[in-house]
Amino acid sequence: MTYLLQVDFKMNGPFGDEMAEAFTDLAKSINEEDGFMWKVWTENPETNEAGGIYMFETKETAEKYLNMHSKRLSGFGVTDLNAKIFAINSKLTAINKGPIN
């Protein structure tokens, strides 16, 4: 069963192309995490929020990543992290063209 990790937090930028440039190395490093499948990066400059939706192969790998990522974000000064882990219903998700195995 696959697991989705939803993360969001307050951030004062950068956003858009500047965000892409600033976090390219971070994005590449995420690909190397155990059990990582994919990520959608999220941002809302109007509300100063950013985050992502991640897919992991197991609940354990999602939890491991969240623990590491929480510490990393804390080091960046993020104090209001919201995070949730959900199991994926792959049969229903497939009907709606969700990108899972």
Automatic annotation (TrEMBL):
InterPro entries: Dimeric_a/b-barrel, YdhR. SUPFAM superfamilies: Dimeric alpha+beta barrel. Its EC number is 1.-.-.-. It comes from the Bacteria. GO terms for molecular function: monooxygenase activity. Pfam families: ydhR. Keywords: Monooxygenase, Oxidoreductase. Signal peptide: none annotated. This is Putative monooxygenase.
